[in-house]
Structures are given as structure tokens and as C-alpha cells.
Amino acid sequence: MILRDAITTLLLLAALFFFVAGTVGLLRFPDLYSRLHALTKADNVGLGLTVLALMFQADDGLEVIQLGLIWILVVVASATVCLLIGKEARRRGIQPWSRRTP
Amino acid sequence: MALLWFVLNGSDARSWIVGAPSVLLSAWVSLRLIPSAPPSLSLRGTLAFAVFFLRESLRGGWDVARLALRPRLTLAPAVVSFSHRLPSGGARLLFAGAVSLLPGTAVIAIEDGHIQIHALNPSPRIEGELRELEDHVIRLFRLSPPNSRTDPS
């Protein structure tokens, strides 16, 4: 029991790190496109670790499958939304920020 | 779809008040949207893809976390074009979705033969990584082996 709780705690702390980093990226990155990177990638790992952490607290196999499924669905949704936002931004002619622009 | 809902909500009978219409609606929509029979996926390809995807998305998250937390922001983003060999449909979409979770790359447009990728810090490595992902997708969907190109590894 204590071992399970310890693993859960460690994984949740790691997840927290990624969520914080993703949010910092969202605030600090220069434009829409780079912010998409921060959100999709960091939050994907953060949620994955959260799901893994909670799997160690699950009562039965069904709960483990449910948690895994939630992660997969969110990953698919976030990759899709990332693509849609990127496409729409490009269609509207939003130029990516670049170091060389004056 | 019914199976999906059952796994998510368990046997709670009341959840089917929302569940039953959702299942019917989503089944109808996917039948309308996907005209042909579902592609046959290779099991080994799926496993290999899953391992590759988990490893790379972990690396992707770590990479972007490191960039975000670095005291001085050292980004030099650029849009790069990548010529892919995937037919339109599921394979191409899976590829595009997965690219966004790889380290430092996000797809911003899909065209025939090319996808436009926004890279946080473009490096020569990106090309190789994308090619590796593409190979995984090709194996997953049992697509015919690409001609004329010989990749290392």
C-alpha cells in the first residue's frame, strides 16, 4: 500500500512538473505556433504521468483500462486540435515569429 | 462505440440516457465519413508504433519543458517542408497527429506530397526523425514499401 502511494506521489510530482513547464511555455513562447508546441507536448506527458499515477490506485482492471482510454482519447483530441488551430492560423496568414524579423 | 461507452461509464444504467444517443450518433457519423472498409492494421506494426510513440512523446514533452524553463529563451522557429509518401486518409492523419507530439515539431498544413511543419529549433535531425515516424506508419498500415529511397537503419 505504502509502495503504491509512494509511486503515485512520485508520478504526480513528475506530472506537475510537465504541466507547470507547459504553462510557462504557453506564457513565454513568442507566438501562436510555438505555444501550440508547449501545450500539446508538455500536457500530453503530464496527463500520461497523471494517468499512470492513478492506475496504481485503481481497484480493478476495468479502471486501469478506463484511465488508459482517457489518455488515448485526450492525446488524439489534442493532436487534432493542434493541427486544426495551426491550419486555421496559417489560412488567416498569421506569420510565425522568427528571430530574424526586425 | 457501445463498447467504448461501456468501458468509460461502467454498468451504470442511467449513463445510457446520454450514452445510447451518443453511440448511435457517432456510429452514424463515422459510417458516413469513412466510406471504405477499415484498413487492416499490422499487429507488430502497431506495437512498434506504440513503443516509438511513447518514447518520442516523452522526449517531446521533456524537450519543450526544458526550452520553456530555460532562463533565456533560445528559440529560432522556422517552417520546414517535409515531402511524405503517404496516401491521403488515415495513414496521413495519424502521421500528422504524431508529428505534433514529436520533439520540436508541429504540423500546420497538410498537402499532397508535402506537409508544412513548424519547428521550434530546426536541426538536421528532424528530417531523420520524421522519416522514421513515416516508416512506422507505413508498416502499421501495411502500405507498399516506398520506392527509390533507401533509409539507414
Please summarize what this structure is.
The complex is a heterodimer of chains A (102) and B (153). By secondary structure, chain A is mostly helical. Chain A has helices at residues 2-28, 32-55, 61-91.
Write the layout of secondary structure elements.
The complex is a heterodimer of chains A (102) and B (153).
Chain A: H1 2-28, H2 32-55, H3 61-91
Helix pairs in contact in A: 1-2, 2-3
Chain B: H1 2-9, H2 16-33, H3 43-69, E1 78-83, H4 90-99, E2 105-110, E3 114-119, H5 125-140
Antiparallel strand pairs in B: 1-3, 2-3
Q: Can you put this structure into words, describing what you see?
A:
The complex is a heterodimer of chains A (about 100) and B (about 150). In chain A, about 30% of the residues are buried. Chain A has one domain. Chain A has helices at about 1-30, 30-55, 60-90. Chain A is mostly helical. The longest helix of chain B is centred in the middle third of the chain and has 27 residues, at about 45-70. Chain B is globular and about 55 Å long. Chain B has 5 helices and 3 strands, in the order H-H-H-E-H-E-E-H. At the A-B interface, helix 1, helix 2 and helix 3 of A face helix 1, helix 3, helix 4 and strand 2 of B.
The structural class of chain B is mainly alpha
Distance between the terminal alpha carbons of chain B, to the nearest Å? 39 Å
Strands of the widest sheet of chain B, in order across it, are 1-3-2
Largest sheet of chain B: 3 strands, antiparallel
User: Unreliable stretches of chain A, pLDDT < 50, 5 or more residues?
Assistant: none
Backbone CA Rg of chain B: 19 Å
Greatest interface by residues involved = A-B, 41 and 37 residues
Q: How many separate helices of chain A?
A: 3
Percent of residues in beta strands of chain A: under 5%
Please count the beta strands of chain A (DSSP E, at least 2 residues each): 0
> Terminal Cα separation of chain A, in Å?
59 Å
Strand content of chain B: 5-15%
Number of strands of chain B: 3
Query: What integer is the average pLDDT of chain B?
Result: 81
Sheet bearing the most strands of chain A, described?
none
What string gives the helices and strands of chain A in order?
HHH
Number of domains of chain A: 1
